[in-house]
Amino acid sequence: MTTSLDRSSGANAETVAAARLLLSQMGISAADLVADGPCAPTFGEVIPKVRLTLTAGTLRTYDTHFKRLLNVWSDHRLDAVSKPDLEGMARVVRDTARTTRATRGGGGAVENFVSAVRCIYRYAEENGWIRPSDNPARKVPKPTRRGSHRYAIPSGQLAEICHAAATSGNDPELDSLILRLHIETACRRGGALALRPHDLDVDQCLIYLREKGGTTRWQPVSPTLMRHLVQHAEERHAPKSEQLLRYRSGAPLTDRRYDHIWVRIGGILPWVAVQGISTHWLRHTTLTWVERTFGPAVARAYAGHEGKSGGTTGTYVKADICEVAAALSVLTGEQHPLASAPAMLLNPDQSAR
């Protein structure tokens, strides 16, 4: 029966195979031809679910744009929004982006907006609500990134920043500890905020950093910094498996403390406010010094970029933790258990107190 029907309709095996291939290339399944798929949810329905899948750092970056989408399109279904609609909202994001000397024409805000929208539609694809071919977020390009205005802060100005933090504010001990942590390790905000007491290897002066993209690494620190990290955790009663950095009240530190630090330092040192200097400048400063002094391989390892760039040579030329410790020893002028320190760049007197 089947054979006779196939012959009468001309649907031989080759024809069926060709039709299946064409449908696959179009992102259409056989079920789509005989029945309607599930309705796409609204932004108001899907965004709360997407939020639950994101890390705290990613959610912090995307949530401004999630809120914008909820304010404007909460009742809109995902399949009712087109590429021009998304591009129009991207223009609004660019035009309303906060402008400072450190911003680059709203490009960063638009890039984060596109990433946030793609995150939503990727979740919809994974749940079968949107076909890849119907996904408008795939068709919206991200803006080309402009070059950063950051540069390595000269040692004299870095000393001024550390002094301003240590002699002002309502918790100078905390602020000095934060700056010292970032200067020594070149870690990001997320890495510092994720640090926990049980991430401290006191004997070897190592801390375990968890940063963006799920990357992790053991990072050498000076004996002075390790001593102050341990003391801070004890005095502020940080539980072993919870956040280490805490306010005097014992409450966990938040991103707002970083903003507070730089606003205050900018009020004392006007050039800090004028240039929009932030914590990431400390990472830039340390890594620039490491690269100039010890070369790209050690700088990549110091930054936690072992698996990135470096070309073909970078596959073979990798620095280990002992080389990172040696660079730290020169940076701080303190001997590290994993290396010796023949010279000094950062005066130990600038340590956390």
UniProtKB/TrEMBL annotation:
Domain Tyr recombinase: 148-329
Keywords: DNA recombination, DNA-binding
Alphabetical list of InterPro entries matching this protein: DNA_brk_join_enz, Integrase-like_cat_sf, Integrase_catalytic, Integrase_recombinase_N, Tyrosine_recombinase_XerCD
The keyword DNA-binding is assigned to this record: yes
One Gene Ontology term from the biological process aspect of the record: DNA recombination
GO molecular function: DNA binding
Keyword DNA-binding listed: yes
CDD domains: DNA_BRE_C
Source organism superkingdom: Bacteria
Family: Belongs to the 'phage' integrase family.
Protein's name according to its UniProt entry: Tyrosine recombinase XerC
Organism: Nocardia macrotermitis
